[in-house]
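Entry 14. Ran structure prediction on the chain below.
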Amino acid sequence: MTGTLVLAGTPIGDVADAPPRLSAELQRADVVAAEDTRRLRRLTQALGVTPRGRVVSYFEGNEAARTPELVEELVGGARVLLVTDAGMPSVSDPGYRLVAAAVERDVRVTAVPGPSAVLTALALSGLPVDRFCFEGFLPRKAGERLSRLREAAGERRTLVYFEAPHRLDDTLTAMAEAFGAQRRAAVCRELTKTYEEVRRGTLGELAEWAGEGVRGEITVVVEGAPDKGPEDVGPEELVRRVRVREDAGERRKEAIAAVAVEAGVPKRVVFDAVVAAKRAP
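Output, structure tokens:
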């Protein structure tokens, strides 16, 4: 029989938030794959447990090479526990590659649910939580970051981002440019830790605040785009907008979908306008 891959959530700040099953799994696993073995040691000491199995590192730098090794352990019947520095594995952390490889080999994958900075920040933000999307970390280069944000400008769901403290100022400024300075947002800093802070306001206000310098682990929650009725946009303008996006490197299908969202019209309307323009003499 094949083994089991267990993804275990770890505290994002307060060690008391560790799920009870985490201690049991740490002592049960044949192999514990940790993003940082030193942090794992501190966590196990705080929990008062000692892993029974072998402890190996599993981080961005060795993820590709170590995944096949762990999969072979799993196929051979081992119980492998995957933990990252904080939160759930594979959510902007190592793990996805291993899960995909395990599933490919018909290995059972389960989880020990635990703390999540995404859900914690979303709940504390004061913004709508009925529909949301997680965008992870934005590109580090300014041009790529602004381009990614502009792609999300029409998204009506609440948006959740991770960001490094030294880039927060630039990111909030770019968000204000792409989404509008009056779009509401919340910056959640050091969640569940001693100096936890949730700063709420418009993107313009938050960008000005962040200019003074911010420290700690950061999660940014941004209000989705407001509902709006269809724009009075004619076929020629729809085609022009599609061409602009295609010239910027988007595939036609994605460009048509994006323009439809921007204009508040069905995709079929934009598609028909593009087809008609191609057939025109």
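The longest strand covers residues 132-137. Will compare against last week's run tomorrow.
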